[in-house]
């Protein structure tokens, strides 16, 4: 007789959507709201949507109006995700993740940690070391030795989450090759002492399809299709 504990049941596969042209922000929010409701009702699968937006700024629930430096530069949208101001635009891969956390431990903090790890694992596939920082959100890339006066830390991925009745949506935004000057219209995520970077800014030139493949591979590693408990 085996003494092994029974394995937790597998979750249904996550559905993936990839949009080849920029998606208007209101359209993306409307889809996520509908999909999250359907996931709660058990009529739609958990979903990851990879897309780009036209240039725009979004204000999270903690946004400080003083951090919107140039309100006339791009459209500004208030959103229900956590966090402050961020930028979205061409060359940035936005990954909207709609998951039922009731089947994944019912732990929002652990879920955010998994999103961070997803970004870190994705970057690792391009030999980029992405790191967390205890005093600031997002994923960061350190350049140079800490003792070097030229040492810097730049954000390469932003994270924002909303959870309603245990279904999470919004997700991560990974800078592939956006116009980094577009971030100058805001204080990104309220952090003034550090900059932003991208894969192309670091000297790497992956295409968006290559980044999408890396995101899918890393997702399977981090978000195993298995419940957290039997």
Care to describe what's here?
- This protein has 230 residues and is of the alpha/beta class.
- The chain has helices at residues 25-41, 108-124, 208-222; strands at 15-18, 47-51, 56-59, 76-78, 85-88, 92-100, 131-133, 136-143, 152-164, 167-175, 195-196.
- The strands form two sheets. Strands 1, 2, 6, 7, 8, 9, 10 and 11 form an eight-stranded mixed beta sheet that branches. Strands 4-3-5 form a three-stranded mixed beta sheet, with no helix packed on it.
- β1 (15-18), α1 (25-41) and β2 form a beta-alpha-beta unit.
- It is globular.
- The model has no long low-confidence stretch (mean pLDDT 91).
Number of strands: 11
Number of helices: 3
How far do the termini sit from each other?
Answer: 19 Å
pLDDT averaged over residues: 91
Overall morphology: globular
Poorly predicted tracts of residues = none
Output the structural class: alpha/beta
Largest beta-sheet characterization: 8 strands, mixed
- Amount of beta strand: 25-35%
Helix content estimate = 10-25%
What letter string, H or E per element, gives the SSE order?
A: EHEEEEEHEEEEEH
Rg, rounded, reads 18 Å
Blueprint of the fold:
Elements: E1 15-18, H1 25-41, E2 47-51, E3 56-59, E4 76-78, E5 85-88, E6 92-100, H2 108-124, E7 131-133, E8 136-143, E9 152-164, E10 167-175, E11 195-196, H3 208-222
Parallel strand pairs: 1-2, 3-4, 9-11
Antiparallel strand pairs: 2-6, 3-5, 6-10, 7-8, 8-9, 9-10
Helix pairs in contact: 2-3
């Amino acid at each position: 007789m085996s003494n092994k504990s029974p394995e937790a049941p597998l979750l249904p596969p996550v559905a993936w959507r990839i949009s080849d042209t920029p998606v208007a922000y209101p359209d993306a929010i409307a889809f996520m709201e509908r999909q999250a409701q359907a996931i709660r009702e058990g009529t739609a699968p958990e979903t990851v949507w990879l897309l780009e937006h036209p240039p725009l700024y979004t204000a999270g629930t903690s946004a400080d109006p003083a951090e919107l430096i140039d309100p006339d530069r791009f459209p500004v949208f208030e959103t229900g995700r956590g966090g402050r101001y961020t930028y979205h635009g061409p060359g940035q891969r936005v990954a909207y993740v709609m998951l039922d956390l009731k089947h994944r431990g019912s732990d929002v903090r652990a879920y955010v940690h998994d999103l961070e790890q997803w970004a870190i694992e994705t970057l690792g596939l391009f030999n980029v070391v992405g790191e967390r920082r205890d005093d600031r959100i997002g994923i960061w890339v350190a350049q140079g030795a800490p003792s070097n006066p030229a040492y810097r830390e730049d954000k390469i991925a932003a994270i924002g989450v909303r959870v309603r009745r245990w279904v999470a949506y919004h997700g991560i935004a990974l800078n592939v090759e956006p116009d980094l000057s577009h971030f100058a219209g805001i204080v990104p995520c309220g952090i003034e002492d550090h900059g932003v970077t991208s894969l192309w800014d670091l000297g790497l030139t992956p295409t968006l399809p290559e980044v999408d493949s890396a995101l899918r591979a890393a997702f399977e590693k981090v978000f195993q299709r298995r419940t957290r408990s039997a």
